[in-house]
Design goal:
alpha/beta, Rossmann fold, Arc Repressor Mutant, subunit A
């Protein structure tokens, strides 16, 4: 029997935990008319909060409402990838018979067959026209288009083209919807782009830590289906160790199953081994890539935040520890927020967003303790 827990980045777990309201709001938005604000969704979250897994879930849910999903990662090639994805996924729903698409004659200025563009369209028209043609062609088969963009990057020509194209097509009544996911700092800069201010009207979801009750219930159900027995106090311990972090939820559950056999009881020793193994992977998969992307001075500032006795840490005390002036410090504050490793819960305060990262920066390891 395959392990029910899937801790790999970029994969969809067998169940999305604690995000039911986001999914329900998204599906409700798909039922609204083209151009409605709920057809544009922004998902904001720090690393490991399950943004990519949620995008995969939303793509799957949208299929039941007749949407053809095109999921891409933000980058220079994403516009072409969107068109290709729609063509590949949507081709099975399109009739080969001749048709007319809003002024474009199929086989002449529209499509040569299926969703393959004619040579004239392919060479002479841009992204907006091509996506419009795909929307119209799919509408003949009562299909709609859903764009899903992960790891949104601000201030790029491709991002501006995509967002402005969506605005125009939605305004024209095309059956299209969009979901974009990214770090809060990145999406904030997208929203502040003067070309893309219309996105401020989109439905926004800030992904925070998962509710402990949802984690507890899922662990109990999943481990029961895995035929493992676990006492209530062990379930509470496992839940607490996740700190509401979706990636840790999957990691700890995965190792509990891997360290036991069907019919086994999850003992305290096994659970601590599972937590310790999960934390080692957290270092390799989350901490190391995050810190490697920062400058030595960024890390110095981050260590100063982690070293403060209070959380959130007081900015004045951080600056004093660094001996750094306010204007200079604000540059690093902005950089670390954009990197998704800190947030400002209130004025004059900062906190590290990634679970256990402060402990790692202070101690150099992550030993499992009962005082987590």
């Amino acid at each position: 029997m395959a392990n029910l827990f899937h801790p790999s980045f970029g994969s969809r777990p067998e169940r999305i935990v604690g995000r039911d309201e986001v999914v329900a709001q998204f599906l409700k938005g798909l039922e609204r008319e083209p151009g409605h604000r709920d057809r544009a969704t922004l998902i904001l979250g720090q690393r490991g909060m399950g943004k990519t897994a949620l995008l995969l879930q939303l793509a799957e849910e949208a299929k039941s409402q007749g949407f053809i999903p095109a999921r891409v990662t933000s980058g220079e090639d994403m516009l072409e990838e969107i068109l290709e994805s729609i063509q590949i996924t949507g081709s099975e729903f399109v009739s080969e018979k001749s048709s007319h698409v809003r002024g474009f004659s199929a086989g002449v200025l529209g499509f040569s067959f299926g969703l393959t563009f004619s040579e004239e369209v392919r060479t002479n028209y841009g992204f907006r026209t091509k996506l419009s043609l795909l929307c119209d062609k799919l509408a003949e088969s009562e299909k709609k288009v859903l764009l899903l963009v992960d790891e949104v990057q601000p201030n790029t020509d491709a991002m501006r083209t995509l967002a402005s194209t969506y605005q125009h097509l939605a305004g024209e009544g095309k059956e299209i919807a969009i979901v974009m996911a990214g770090l809060p700092g990145s999406l904030s800069r997208v929203l502040n782009d003067k070309v893309l201010t219309f996105l401020n009207r989109a439905r926004k979801h800030q992904l925070g830590p998962l509710p402990s009750g949802d984690i507890l219930a899922y662990y109990g159900d999943a481990l029961s289906r895995e035929k493992r027995t676990i006492a209530s106090e062990m379930l509470m311990r496992a839940t607490k160790a996740t700190k509401g972090f979706p990636y840790l939820l999957q990691l700890i559950g995965y190792y509990i199953v891997e360290l036991t056999a069907e019919g086994d009881e999850v003992t305290p020793d096994v659970l601590e081994q599972a937590i310790a193994a999960a934390r080692l992977e957290l270092i390799a998969d989350v901490f190391s890539p995050t810190l490697n992307a920062l400058s030595p001075r960024d890390i110095e500032v981050l260590r100063a935040i982690a070293a403060q006795k209070t959380s959130p840490a007081v900015v004045a005390e951080i600056r004093a520890a660094l001996g750094m002036g306010n204007s200079y410090f604000q540059q690093y504050r902005a950089r670390l927020i954009d990197a998704g490793v800190i947030e400002a819960p209130r004025d004059g305060a900062l906190s590290i967003t990634v679970p256990y990262l402060a402990e790692y920066l202070n101690n150099g390891d992550l030993k499992a303790t009962e005082t987590d």
